[in-house]
Amino acid sequence: MVTTSIPRVATYGIRPRIISVCSASTASACPILPPGWRRITEQLTCSLHVSQRFSFGTAAVRAARPPSASYTSTTVPSQSLGRRGGSVAPRRRRTQAERSAATRAALIAAARELFAARGFADTGREEIVKHAGVTRGALHHHFGSKTELFRAVFEDVERELTERVAGTLTADSPMEGLRRGCEMFLEAATDPAVQRIVLTDAPSVLGWRTWREIDARYGLGLAIGALDAVMDAGQIERRPVEPLAHMLLAALTEAAMLVASSPDPQRTRGEVDAIVDRLLSSF
Fold this sequence. Notes:
CATH topology of the largest domain: Tetracycline Repressor, domain 2
Largest sheet: none
């Protein structure tokens, strides 16, 4: 039995095969092959000799081979082949900006959960980075301090709260939309994250002035737009809208703090709802 291998060819993602055949001179004497297979073996052996001589046998052909192709019997790993034999595209690596944004988001999400459950004072930096799955250096790089991280968390909660309230201002009646928006704001005061982060810790951690500035940045524009729509609809008398919006926002914030600190939030919420409704009617 003579073993003949396929001549070296460019392996364009095709797994090479080694074929063992009987040579033409020994095929007829091979006892393990039936007569029909002996004839096939003789033809295959002849084809292999021709291929070796003419396919890659001249210098001109070798020179014409593309330099990037490999002509060795390299086996392609099976993991690189798809179900139909095609190669699988490599996963795109994230950019530095994408990795940085993902790390920042992980820190904010972890800190928000811990601040809401334990408060700012009882949450350590080591616990935050462990919960986020990042290093302590990442916290320092993105925020500098735990206080700045808390500020980012506070703004994240304020942004989410503003979006929830804005979704209720699409009622057919502008005044009805304003009422629903106020109700949604007070309902959010029963959320533990809003209670602990926005209404309890933020004034002391960030300072009263910074807390009010951030609160006004997110809520004031919404209040101005809602009151403007009510005035345009003729449902309340036209008056300077910005001072009125400041007064409404301050009243709602104080009402929310009252609900959050109450031993019976549901009962306090019902009382506050009635007062806010009368306040809006007086406009």
